[in-house]
Structure formats: structure tokens, C-alpha cells
TrEMBL record:
GO molecular function: ATP binding; ATP hydrolysis activity
Domain of life (superkingdom): Bacteria
Name of this protein: Urea ABC transporter ATP-binding protein UrtD
SUPFAM superfamilies (UniProt xref): P-loop containing nucleoside triphosphate hydrolases (SSF52540)
Lineage: Bacteria, Pseudomonadati, Pseudomonadota, Gammaproteobacteria, Thiotrichales
NCBIfam families: urea_trans_UrtD
Record bears the keyword Disulfide bond: no
ABC transporter domain boundaries: 36-276
Length: 276
């Protein structure tokens, strides 16, 4: 995959918050500082505290892994960031000032936070390229728009995304014929078509072969830097292969944060995992 080469070109920052014009061109208003933050976030379901005073800050360009035992609140945290779940209290900000609470799921996606769920949801009867084309238009119900001719710039973007996800050779093949791993990459490509600033990726390695995992590691590492990538993952070997910084959630709260070595040696983390 010529990911690094092509990504520089794909990431032509849109004129979308939190990027502003500067002498160097479009720059994140965070100045590569914190791009996503949760402060004092709480969420209860029928009296059960799924998220308990959650505080977390993620820097622009980071590749952050979120780990934690079953029921730790990882999915609920992702749901809160993307507007699927509204917290009871707390603040969630994109950049330094954009308040994500009160924004709808489509508005948050439009602002530049894309999410990939664990199960691939590609359109199996369409080709790989058609899936990407459809994703570019956002509104998947608009078949007429999908049939419209792509501009040169849009076609270039599509070609670069195909190269990034390593599916350029199979672009005209049916998505239904792809392997599980290839479907996951296609879905990441579908997110990239909308030029997100932040990518939230749920268990990308689940069900993958070792070879596919290696390619996914390569892909996520290539995406970080120009994008901010947040990965929720259970597979510790995979986490070790991609993570620079790991956050351990437990009972809806941050238990530990640091490098993989740091958190693996943390006595509280060991106890939580052994006690699972
Ligand atoms: N809509 C809901 N109604 C009731 N309880 C919920 C709801 N969503 C989540 N919970 C509960 O909140 C807790 C946290 O769940 P969550 O799915 O966020 O954990 P998780 O860390 O993603 O777990 P896993 O690794 O098993 O996916 C769990 O105890 C779960 O049962």
C-alpha cells in the first residue's frame, strides 16, 4: 500500500470547523493540541452508571486505543461522542470550542467525526468503487446522485482512497466477494471518502487473519497523523502493534492511561483484567 504517499494528498482539509485559515494554510484551531475531549461525563441507564465521571483528551493526529473489560463503557463512550447517546451531565468538545452535546448524529458526522462499527456494512451487490462513490455522497438513499458523473477531483479522491485501503486492483469487483478483512478496509475507505478529521474505529481486528491484522496495523498507522484515530479493541496483540497511547476504561471511568507497557504493568489494570 502506498498509503503514506497518497494520504498527504487525500487529506486536503475541508473548510470545516475545527480548521481555520492561517499563514500556513488550513490549520486545526487546536494547533495540533486536543481535538476531542470529554469532561466530567456521566451516563446512567435505569440507575446503572455506565459512564462515571469520564475525563479524556485526545490530541489531533493521535492513534489512541481504548481498552477495558466487558461492560467498561467503551461503546457508550463512542455513542456519546457521535451523538447516538446523550449523557446526563458533562461536556464533550471537538476542537477547543465546538460543543458536541446538542448536535445530532448527522451534524457530528458532518463536522468531521466518522465512525466505523465492528460489523462491516458495505453494499455487497455493488462494486468496491461504487461503494466508495456512494459514501462520498453521504445520503445513501439518493440513487440519482450516485449515478451522476464524478468530477475529476472526486475521481482523483476515490482513486487515492482505493490505493490507501489497498483495493485498487479489485475496484470493479463486487464488494460481496471481498474477504472479511477487505470489507473492513472498504468500510474505512467509505469513511475516508467524506474526509473526516477524526475516525472512531470499533474492533477492527475482530475476525481477521494474522495477515489481515498486519495490513490493518499498517493502514491505521498510516491514517494517524493526518487524521486522529481512536480504536476500541479487545485483541491485546493488535493493540500493542498499533497503539502509541492506551486508555484503560473500567466501570465507566479512566483507570489508567499511557503506553502499552505502562498500562500492562499497572497493578490496578492487572487486577481488573484478572478479575474479569
Ligand atoms: N441502552 C442501554 N440500556 C441499559 N444498559 C446499557 C445500555 N447501553 C449500555 N448499557 C450498560 O452499560 C454498561 C457499559 O456498556 P458498554 O456497551 O458501553 O460497554 P463496553 O465496554 O463497550 O463492553 P463490551 O466490551 O462488552 O462491548 C454495560 O453494563 C451495559 O449493559
Amino acid at each position: 500500500m502506498k498509503q503514506l504517499d497518497t494520504l498527504r494528498e487525500i487529506m486536503r482539509p475541508d473548510e470545516v470547523f475545527p480548521f481555520v485559515h492561517s499563514q500556513k494554510g488550513l490549520e486545526p484551531i487546536t494547533d495540533r493540541g486536543v481535538i476531542l475531549s470529554l469532561e466530567g461525563v456521566n451516563k446512567s441507564f435505569d440507575g446503572f452508571k455506565a459512564i462515571n465521571d469520564l475525563n479524556m483528551a485526545i490530541d489531533a493526529g493521535e492513534l489512541r486505543c481504548i481498552i477495558g473489560p466487558n461492560g467498561a463503557g467503551k461503546t457508550t463512550m463512542m455513542d456519546i461522542i457521535t451523538g447516538k447517546t446523550v449523557p446526563d451531565t458533562g461536556r464533550v468538545r471537538f476542537g477547543q470550542t465546538m460543543n458536541l452535546l446538542g448536535m445530532s448524529e448527522p451534524e457530528i458526522a458532518q463536522a468531521g467525526i466518522g465512525r466505523k462499527f465492528q460489523k462491516p456494512t458495505v453494499f455487497e451487490c455493488l462494486t468496491v468503487a461504487e461503494n466508495l462513490e456512494l459514501a462520498m455522497h453521504g445520503d445513501k438513499s439518493v440513487w440519482a446522485t450516485f449515478r451522476a458523473t464524478l468530477s475529476g477531483e472526486q475521481q482523483d479522491h476515490l482513486d487515492k482512497v482505493l490505493t490507501t485501503i489497498g483495493l485498487q486492483e479489485g475496484a470493479k469487483g463486487q464488494a460481496g466477494s471481498l474477504s472479511h478483512g477487505q470489507k473492513q478496509w472498504l468500510e474505512i475507505g467509505m469513511l475516508l471518502m467524506q474526509r473526516p478529521h477524526v475516525l472512531l474505529v470499533d474492533e477492527p481486528a475482530a475476525g481477521m487473519t494474522h495477515q489481515e491484522m498486519d495490513k490493518t496495523t499498517e493502514l491505521l498507522n498510516a491514517l494517524a497523523g493526518d487524521h486522529t484515530v481512536v480504536v476500541v479493541e479487545h485483541d491485546m496483540d493488535f493493540v500493542r502493534s498499533i497503539a502509541r497511547r492506551v486508555t484503560v476504561l473500567h466501570q465507566g471511568h479512566v483507570l489508567a492511561e499511557g503506553t502499552m507497557d505502562d498500562v500492562q504493568q499497572d497493578q490496578r489494570v492487572i487486577e481488573v483484567y484478572l478479575g474479569e
